[in-house]
Amino acid sequence: MGDATQGTSTTSESSGLDSTGLDSTALDSSGLDSSGRIAAVAEVARRLLPDAGVITDRARLRTYECDGLAHYRVTPALVVIPQDAEQLAALVRACAEQAVPFVARGSGTGLSGGALPHAEGVLVVTSQMRAIREVRRDDQRAVVEPGVINLDVTKAATPVGYYYAPDPSSQQICSIGGNVAENSGGAHCLKYGFTTNHVLGADFVTPDGDTVSLGGAAPDSPGYDLLGAVVGSEGTLGIVTSATVRLVRLPEEVRTILVGFSSTDQAGAATSAIIAAGIVPAAIEMMDALAIEAAEAAVHCNYPDGAGAVLVIELDGAAIEVEQEYAEVRRLCDDHGAFEQRLATDPAERALIWKGRKSAFAAVGRISPDYIVQDGVIPRTALPEVLTAIAELSGSSGVRVANVFHAGDGNLHPLVLFDDEIDGAGEAAERVSGAILDLCIEHGGSITGEHGVGMDKSKYMPRMYTDEDLDTMQLVRCAFDPQNISNPGKVFPTPRLCGEVPGRHKGAHPLQEAGLAEVF
Asked: What SS3 class is residue 451?
């Protein structure tokens, strides 16, 4: 991701919020800043873990001060690195007993500040919990620990004819636990869906340190879909210690096509035409001229000269089906102005085509010292209109924007470029970044497709949701975490204590007065 990755500005001191997004007055009054409580948790950790698994040295703690969004930095009070689920649960119990906040962290590749530590809390790092416990070919399942690297699941399943479909661009280093927390997607989510479509069960440590099992190996489980609540909850409900994931059979044939267009409008129209024809490619990715320029400078991917946009289209499945779809895709791209089409003829060519796309975020560092990675979603049919509006925003503000995104499902990743050494450049970039999210909302989309809300986008949540919507979401959080110690200060713009009651009230309900019910 690179240190050049930037995010929106932190909240001003006058707001009463600290760098973690929590009300500093509430922290002081509740005692969560007590060094004695941290020391008590550290003592438990020393009894459980080897010396290397307990970090208190200030210099070493600073290596954990941010995730992939380097703009936000907080040094944790304590870092612990459990090696198994029992140790992790015991550490969380110690945090609960001492009312100490904790934050889970996997590989630290997140782009929303979701794994930003708490200055008076514990960072629980799951990177040592990396066993692939089972690969069950007949059931098309694998059971993995949270520290397992995404791509390693596919490597383990490939010898028996399967792979793990969700593939974030960081799949070589991101971990399954983080993917579950953020409900990560990737280039192939168009056809195969997000992480939530591939997680069937999980062992889960609640914020009070209990270990529970959610879901299972079966396609569906009775009762409330608690697993669905946990996937994508960004660590605010607890920590996953293992996941049962779905494996997908390796396709009989894969064809990867690189298509050059003169403009993003043409590429967007071709994308819509392909989907309208009933073809669902494994992936349709788009890059504009500025993103292509960055990728060429970084990895020399040899994309078509003079292209205003390229599409990377991947078809997979039965050979006869792929052959028919390929012919139709070529025709539709030609009909919408493609001036060059290349079919990868071997694995090396296919890898090079994808290398340009998957290196795009880091590559932008070659053409700009700083940039904001944005992540919004729009209906696919709105691509031409929204891309035109982004270009107009860029032109009127003088802030360059490189577009690279999942065109097939309308998940935009505009990269807003600036130089923080220039006075006011960062603020101007943040205004453009926020305006792009407003465009997404105006067109019926979302402020995030796969990067999560975390710290970076919590202030945008009220633009999508009413106060009543946000209160309802927080009722779920409070049911899991009444102490508000599991990744506090994330997702919600104004975290409230779980004893507070949302909405309008005229007094206690009779069941409350009788002691038979409780409001969380």
From this structure: coil
Cα of 224 vs its chain's centroid, Å: 24
* pLDDT at site 380: 86
From the DSSP assignment, how many helices (H) and strands (E) are in the chain?
Answer: 18, 21
DSSP state for residue 149 in the 8-state scheme: B
User: What average pLDDT does the structure give for the chain?
Assistant: 89
CATH number at residue 348: 3.30.70.2190
Structure tokens at 505: 């009230």
Confidence of residue 221 (pLDDT cuts 50, 70, 90): confident
Query: Do strands 78-80 and 122-125 pair parallel, antiparallel, or not at all (unpaired)?
Result: parallel
What phi and psi, each to the nearest 5 degrees, are found at residue 321?
-70, -45
Asked whether residue 69 carries a pLDDT value surpassing 90, the answer given is: no
| Residue among 5, 21, 34 nearest 97 (CA) | 34
Q: Does residue 379 sit within a domain?
A: no
Question: Is the pTM above the cut of 0.85?
Answer: yes
CA distance 248 to 72: 37
- Domain range for 329: 251-367
Does 454 reside within a domain?
A: no
Q: Are residues 182 and 200 in the same domain?
A: yes
Task: Kindly state whether residue 415 falls inside one of the protein's structural domains.
Answer: no
Helix (H) or strand (E) holding 406: strand 401-406
CB burial string 160-171: b at 16+ within 10 A, e below: eebbbbbbbbbb
φ, ψ of residue 252 to 5 degrees: the values are -65, -35
Rounded-to-integer distance, Cα 49 and Cα 114, Å: 25
